Amino acid sequence: MKKTIALLTGGTTGEWVVSVKSAATIAQNLDTTKYDVYKIMLTENGWFYEPADSVKIDIDKNDFSLTLNGRKIKFDGVFIAIHGSPGEDGKLQGYFDMLGIPYTTCSALTSAITMNKGYTKAIVHGIKNLNVAKSVQIFKNTTFSVDDIKAELKLPYFVKPNNGGSSIGMSKVKHADDLQSALDKAFKEDTQVLIEEFVEGREFSVGVFKTKGKIVVLPATEVIPANEFFDFEAKYTPGATEEITPGRMSDEEKNKVEQVVADVYEKLNCNGIVRIDYFLEKETSNFYFIEINTIPGQTATSFIPQQVAAMGMELKDFYTQVIEETI
């Protein structure tokens, strides 16, 4: 008996563009012998299903159902492919929890916490072999001193929206005089901003998921951006970044990374596919946690599809394992 799956895409932030591309990859690789898939678009103007040969059909938000040709379709589960709000911040997860519909991502609580970079760092602090860069978290409508930030942190530093994604609104600050403009840019995206000291090292990104109750760490991708850092352009422009999968790590580094990211997945009570970004510090190879993405990109240029291929797995099998574990 096939399961009926809603593939939820779109969103209400600038990341909706990435979400649509991610959903296209997922749709192409879901096993149609096991699942009847309906791609549902969520926008600020409504939630709807758009058949190829028909007009948009609104979703009934009372029970997340769809009426097609007089037949009411209810879903066995939801594959959430919305980056940013409301897909990655816990809002949709809470909605589906109230309806009793399972989904492929972390819980509402984990999703909400991990959208906040500062809160996440506080929780993962203390995990064996994990380090976090020194940072200051500030809030838009409260008093803070730019001079105090400059006194507390060493240049250069990264300034980033605390709840954002895809590196939107992020800046690398090399000169203290540039801090205020970087803060202004970040505050356009969020009411909370994180200022972190720069860690000099090699940057990596690694996917983690759970199958049959076991945490599986995918081969990590080493990220060498042509730009100053791994910004939105570098992430989504083919050829703008050199990406090496599997990344160049010694066996000792690889074992340490697998231990740390599995512990992060467990401590944050994750489900489904997550992606953890980290640095291996120059000289020491110490692991520095950057952030976790609980709905990582699945576009043609995204890391997760690359890492699944490097593991010798087909995307169809990968997505099947994710659905079977979570739905």
TrEMBL record:
Localization, UniProt: Cytoplasm
Domain ATP-grasp: 124-324
Gene3D superfamilies in the cross-refs: 3.40.50.20, ATP-grasp fold, A domain, ATP-grasp fold, B domain
Cofactor note: Binds 2 magnesium or manganese ions per subunit.
The family this protein is said to belong to: Belongs to the D-alanine--D-alanine ligase family.
Function: Cell wall formation.
Protein's UniProt name: D-alanine--D-alanine ligase
Source species: Pedobacter cryotolerans
